[in-house]
Amino acid sequence: MTDLLNQAIAQLQTLPDSQQNAIAAIILDELKDEQRWDTAFARSPNLLANLAAAAMAEYHAGETQELDPETL
Questions:
Q1: 1: buried, middle or exposed (CB in 10 Å: 19+, 13-18, 0-12)?
Q2: CA 61 to CA 72: how far, in whole Å?
Q3: Domain annotation covers residue 36
Q4: Position 5 in a domain
């Protein structure tokens, strides 16, 4: 375990149980979300490469428009 994680856990241990549980739930949700993204990207490398190639082809063909920061 890293020093930073040890520091965080030490501080968490000083909190009431309800706050510890709330933070633990957030961490677990974040870890699950990361796993879902990892799984999705692992399953679709060809799809992502094809989408990138298509976007570059549109760019080189002059079929794209520059983003206007005023409209974002």
A1: exposed
A2: 24
A3: yes
A4: no
**pTM of the predicted model, to two decimals?**
0.57
Joined tokens for residue 45? 């490398």
Measured at the CA of 21, the angle between CA 16 and CA 24, to 5 degrees, comes to: 125
Query: pLDDT tens digit string along 29-40?
Result: 999 999 998 898
Helix 17-43 with 45-60: angle, nearest 10 deg: 70
Number of domains into which the chain is organized:
1
User: Do 23 and 14 meet the contact criterion of CB atoms below 8 Å apart?
Assistant: no
Which residue range(s) make up the domain with 54?
A: 12-60
